[in-house]
Design a protein that fits this description.
Order of helices and strands of chain B: HHHHEEEHHHHHHHHEHEEEEHHHHHHH
Organism (chain A): Pseudoalteromonas rubra
Mean pLDDT of chain A: 91
Strand content of chain A: under 5%
Largest sheet of chain A: none
Shape of chain B: globular
Number of helices of chain A: 3
Order of helices and strands of chain A: HHH
Keywords (chain A): Membrane, Transmembrane, Transmembrane helix
Number of strands of chain B: 8
Helix content of chain A: over 70%
Low-confidence stretches of chain A: none
Strand order of the largest sheet of chain B: 3-2-1-5-6-7-8-4
Number of helices of chain B: 20
Distance between the termini of chain A: 60 Å
Structural class of chain A: mainly alpha
Low-confidence stretches of chain B: none
Radius of gyration of chain B: 26 Å
Number of domains of chain B: 3
Strand content of chain B: 5-15%
Protein name (chain A): Iron transporter
Mean pLDDT of chain B: 90
Radius of gyration of chain A: 17 Å
Helix content of chain B: 55-70%
Number of domains of chain A: 1
Oligomer: heterodimer
Largest sheet of chain B: 8 strands, antiparallel
Distance between the termini of chain B: 30 Å
Shape of chain A: elongated
Chain lengths: ~100, ~525
């Protein structure tokens, strides 16, 4: 194995670790905020539920980031999830305002 | 990542475990000790006079006199009645802060002497509480840093558990496999036993652990709905902890409401549970009321609570029926499962042992990883050999440090200033010394020295107790003081366990084929 492929692999691994830790945390928080905004009569309880699901989401994201075959797919996964959740939160807050 | 899914998960399992292994080991050991917080506390305060046989009424009368004398300006009073776990009367009050007199707002807790009713003066000690709080505040760092570090370690633990389940196809078959004296294979089997059997406990304790700190780690979610800042968050906490109550009207007239009348009314309503403590809340205000708490070992609920309010016509009693929200109720359940306050003495031991299994799981996982690293090359790289040494220092050094903490409680001068803080310093100094010993000393027999050291420390604790107090094993046995006796007995049990471990490890240093044998531990 040449030195350059080795350092490329190391970079890809470090990138995955970053994606898992930071991306996973961001997605966990976004998911929690989205859940807390779901329509329901007990607002406070939805926040509690959201935060509790957050750790499950975090775990699943970390697992997925390391399970997919390439670092590129992991990047796509994290960015897609982030975008989707952003969209969902936006939709929910719009429907709430109406 | 790796070519196969299971290999990727194996990599993740290894690294999520190794990165915070020592911190997780520390959390599991000190957290397990927390299940015996009250018992440890009682042992560390030997001056406390037990009050078996005193009636609730007598105890409360004594307590009210002392509270009136020492805490007349306090807004909250509590009296803890003798129970099987805490067989003594204790009063506590919230001292209001007074900047002029430089009095800090804080809780005071004082045990009472049951015969005279006076406050018993006890040695200044960190007790069981500071020891159990170590597992999430890490003592020397600011609380916020402690919470974040332990949460991070907890998240990695959760990932380690889930990936651990994924990589073991035949998880239950492997549980019944044990290949002894086969080096790495044996360690893998040991790791499986400690992980699989208490897996439900490990998952519950880890998930609920990170959940309990979610207000800190996921505060952005609260920010998004309530706004930033302590006051905004306080609104959220108050709202989320809202309880639902059933309100009943009692026979008591508003003027006749006091601790005695509330107590006798509560006893008529709940006949099958002992009362653990009573409180007078919001003293001297319009919302002044009396709380009666029942014993905690009667179900997963933390405790049943009755609140007595004086209303216009009659006194009304509020009975809590649980949290208003569903998620909050699940949170409550998990919190109670984590803390195990409801557990009686037998279940408490199961909790304690499961916690130690968790520590053993982490320790054996670390040993497996280090064995694999050192087997790769004849002379492992410097970093690996340093980790190997430090690993010994942490794994055995921590139990030694806890033992030294108990010893310091008996051996430090009773009138020493800052004594309680020094007990904690002793704990951490012992841990650091064990690590330093492993780093400096080049002997191959570090495991042996440390294990014999631990055996010695735990053997000496009951002796130090016997020499410095009147609560030695013989006296405890004669007085049927089972808490003190049990504590000393446990210390000797731990000493025996460490001695046994030392004897097993020492076998690898004896015999003619020492050089050929694969070392038992690394």
């Amino acid at each position: 194995m040449s030195l350059s492929t080795k350092s490329a692999q190391a970079f890809a691994l470090g990138w995955r670790v970053l994606l898992a830790l930071v991306g996973g945390f961001a997605i966990a928080n976004l998911a929690a905020i989205a859940i807390s905004q779901l329509p329901g009569d007990n607002k406070v309880d939805s926040i509690v539920a959201g935060m509790m699901w957050g750790f499950v989401v975090y775990t699943l994201v970390v697992l997925s980031v390391f399970a997919v075959r390439t670092a590129l797919r992991a990047t796509l996964l994290v960015s897609t999830l982030t975008a989707l959740l952003y969209g969902l939160i936006h939709l929910l807050s719009v429907s709430e305002a109406v | 990542m790796k070519a196969r899914f299971r290999q990727s998960m194996g990599w993740l399992h290894t690294w999520s475990g190794v990165v915070f292994a020592w911190l997780l080991y520390f959390i599991f050991v000190t957290g397990s000790l927390g299940y015996f917080e009250n018992e440890i506390d009682r042992w560390m305060k030997p001056e406390i006079v037990t009050s078996n046989g005193i009636s609730d009424k007598q105890a409360i009368d004594l307590a009210m006199v002392q509270l009136g004398e020492h805490a007349d300006d306090a807004s909250q009073w509590y009296v803890s009645l003798p129970t099987s776990r805490d067989p003594y009367i204790e009063i506590s009050w919230l001292q209001p802060g007074d900047p002029e007199k430089q009095v800090r707002r804080q809780w005071y807790e004082k045990p009472l002497e049951p015969n005279t009713g006076d406050i018993t003066s006890i040695r200044d000690t960190s007790g069981g509480e500071t020891l159990y709080r170590l597992h999430y505040n890490l003592h020397y760092v600011p609380p916020l840093v402690g919470y974040i570090l332990t949460s991070l370690a907890g998240m990695l633990m959760l990932i380690g558990l889930v990936t651990g389940v994924i990589i073991h196809r035949k998880i239950f078959a492997e549980f019944f496999t044990f290949r002894s004296a086969k080096g790495l294979r044996s360690w893998l089997d040991i790791h499986n036993v400690f992980s699989v059997l208490p897996l439900p406990f490990h998952l519950m304790i880890t998930y609920s652990g990170v959940m309990l700190l979610m207000g800190v780690t996921m505060s952005k979610v609260i920010d998004s709905q309530y706004g930033e800042g302590r006051q905004m968050h306080r609104q959220f906490y108050d709202a989320s902890q809202l309880e639902e109550y059933t309100t009943l009207v009692t026979e008591i007239l508003p003027a006749g409401l006091n601790v005695d009348t509330a107590l006798s009314d509560a006893k008529q309503r709940v006949t099958d549970q002992a009362i653990s403590f009573v409180g007078v809340i919001d003293r001297g205000t319009d919302t002044e009321h009396i709380e009666i708490w029942f014993e905690t070992s009667e179900g997963v609920e933390f405790a049943s609570l009755l609140k007595y309010h004086a209303r216009a016509e009659r006194v009304e009693v509020e009975i809590a029926t649980g949290k208003a929200g569903q998620a909050a109720a699940v949170y409550d359940l998990l919190e109670h499962l984590h803390e195990g306050l409801f557990a009686d003495i037998y279940l408490r031991w199961v909790y304690f042992l499961c916690g130690l299994f968790g520590a053993a799981m982490i320790a054996s996982g670390m040993i497996i990883w280090l064995k694999k690293q050192t087997m790769k090359e004849a002379t492992p790289p410097l970093l690996i050999s340093l980790i190997v040494r430090l690993n010994r220092g942490v794994l055995v050094g921590l139990p030694i440090a806890v033992g030294c903490y108990f010893l310091s409680n008996r051996l430090l001068p009773v009138d020493m200033s800052g004594r309680a803080a020094w007990e904690m310093h002793v704990l951490f100094a012992a841990l650091v010394l064990c690590c330093l010993y492993c780093l400096i000393n080049r002997s191959q027999k570090q495991w042996l020295t440390l294990l014999w050291g631990a055996a010695l420390v735990y053997f000496v604790i009951p002796l130090a107790n016997m020499l410095t107090t009147h609560h030695g094993v013989i006296n405890s046995l004669l007085n049927a003081d089972w808490l003190m006796f049990g504590f000393d007995l446990c210390m000797w049990l731990f000493a025996a366990c460490f001695g046994l471990a030392a004897a097993v490890v020492s076998r690898q240093y004896t015999g003619s084929d020492v050089a050929k044998k694969e070392p038992l531990v690394c």
